[in-house]
Amino acid sequence: MLDDVIxxxxxxxxxxxxxxxxxTLYDEAELYYQDIELKSGKIIIDFGKNLxxxxxxxxxxxxxxxxxxxxxxxxxxxxxxxxxxxxxxKALVYGARTEQQGMIIDALLTKRENDSTMYLNRAEIxxxxxxxxxxxxxxxxxxxxxxxxxxxxxxxxxxxxxxxxLILPFFYVPLTKGRASGxxxxxxxxxxxxxxxxxxxxxxxxxxxxxxAATGDFYTNGSWGLRFxxxxxxxxxxxxxxxxxxxxxxxxxxxxxxxxxTKTFHINWxxxxxxxxxxxxxxxxxxxxxxxxxxxxxxxxxxxxxxxxNTLSSSISYYKKFEGTPFNMNVALTHSQNTNTxxxxxxxxxxxxxxxxxxxxAPKNGVKKNPIQNIGLTYSLALQNQIATTDAExxxxxxxxxxxxxxxxxxxxxxxxxxxxxVTLSPNVS
Length: 430
Fold this sequence. Notes:
single chain, mainly beta, lipopolysaccharide transport protein A fold, six-stranded antiparallel barrel
């Protein structure tokens, strides 16, 4: 006994066999049952077994047309043929294609449990909408949960139907709108370095406070790049972003005079502290540091605003007020870099220690009454270490040969002396 009425129609013809309990719909056939919509060139309904068989038809030119379109709830698939049990709402689908958030999944065989779970065999996954796909990821078995995730076993990347050595032990793609760990599908294209895939990798939703995206680029001429991007935020405490890039760039043909191989890198870090998090300490960072030629040579950064800049600069600072004492400390690391001359200047570090004014001879209670009691003492220490180097010498032994270091102590004593009625003298010794 069915829970609802089956509605069907066809443009061509409809036949009913009462003995075999079969109804055949031909040419633009349609079937509706509860939240199910099935449209196909030909549909056979078996009322005895509660099954519907759907497939396309052959036109006069021999083309296979009117492939079955199956819609259940908000999910829709196009396939070569299918067998659907309209009582259990399970289906066996052949040659199905489904799209989810820009991702296209083709599967040789699909077992549809319901509108929320499907099992795919021999699936191919891509974001390319071309008839001849630029790339796809092939995996034997996939569990597909629309709106949530796609999980598969061992997977292999294909470029233009050619298998590559890039094999993943598993495949996971989040399909939710919120944060979820999963595979990041790469973009594709071609340029002077050949065909490429960019920004493919994995996204880790580590927690509500921290995430990490590990992505990479691959070019058929052998060039490649890696990127790690992370953001973090602890409410009312601190937050920031970190980006690390490394690229191995190949130009020209190996063995010829125009062949070059270059390694470049770039680090970007921004960190800020909530003013309410600590009344006695502050930490901030703004780092923009890397190879001078990174943005001019990078194959994945040519469209960024940094491409036109000829300077890079960084600053990291930490301030600490020592409670219960008159002392405070400030440490700063700075860096400036000319990307045209490749000259790098760094201060590692600038250290300043200061002491609030003390009155060593003043009474513990009451007003300071004479010049001796009015004597104030201050102290400061300034330390600086400067390094001037170039891209070629960076992180080499010669980087520190021209370093300049210096330290200054400053002690100051002063007081106020009233001479006559309207004159005040302020002697100072430092």
